[in-house]
Amino acid sequence: MALRKIRTKEEEVLRKKSKVVKNIDDRTKVLIKDMLETMYDANGVGLAAPQVGILKRIVVIDVGQGPIVLINPEIIKQRGSIEALEGCLSIPGEQGKVIRPEYVKVKGLNENGQQIELEGEDFLARAFCHEIDHLDGILYTDKVKK
User: Fold this and answer.
1) For the domain bounded by 12-143, which CATH number is listed?
2) Is the pLDDT of residue 1 over 90?
3) Would you call 141 helix, strand, or coil by DSSP?
4) What pLDDT does 145 receive?
5) pTM (global) more than 0.90
6) Which end of the chain is less packed: N or C, by CB atoms within 10 Å?
7) SS3 assignment, position 104
């Protein structure tokens, strides 16, 4: 495993749309391990592949309940809304208030290629939305309440 460089908001890669992962091979699994190690080293709770310069639809999240890996994630259900402060490893030292769903249900693949569905409320729901936004080139600052 290796630490990867976290890209910052000035870097174009963060504004590009990520590609669907068609094959979960050894390189994909190494990327996932590196992303988790990088996220933990930076004291983050989520990291998307574009944040380490890779345009693949992969996110890792850990809000204190253990690591979650989602490949090709999609939000399939959401409800409610809540406004809270957000930050991002790619935008160090900044925060802003963003309105996100209070509850989301996501589907995707795990690192073994198995289809999974997960539900999240409050902070986990926010993390799912924030990281999935990265896969479409969207930063939380695009949604900050003015």
Assistant:
1) 3.90.45.10
2) no
3) helix
4) 77
5) yes
6) C
7) strand
DSSP state of 20: P
Q: How far is CA 111 from CA 9, 19, 27, 58, 67, in A?
A: 27, 16, 11, 10, 11
Q: How far does Cα 60 stand from its chain's mean position?
A: 6
Q: How sure is the predictor about 46, in pLDDT bands with cuts at 50, 70 and 90? A: very high
Q: Which percentage of the chain shows pLDDT scores above 70?
A: 99
**Residue 138 has which token pair?**
């969207």
Q: How far apart are CA 11 and CA 53, in angstroms?
A: 9
The residues that are catalytic are 131
Q: Write the CB contacts of 109 (distance below 8 Å, at least 6 apart in sequence).
A: 21, 24, 70, 71, 72, 115, 116
Counting Cα atoms < 13 Å in the Cβ hemisphere of 84 gives 15
pLDDT for 66: 96
Domain residues of the chain, as ranges? 12-143
Per DSSP, the three-state class of 69 is strand
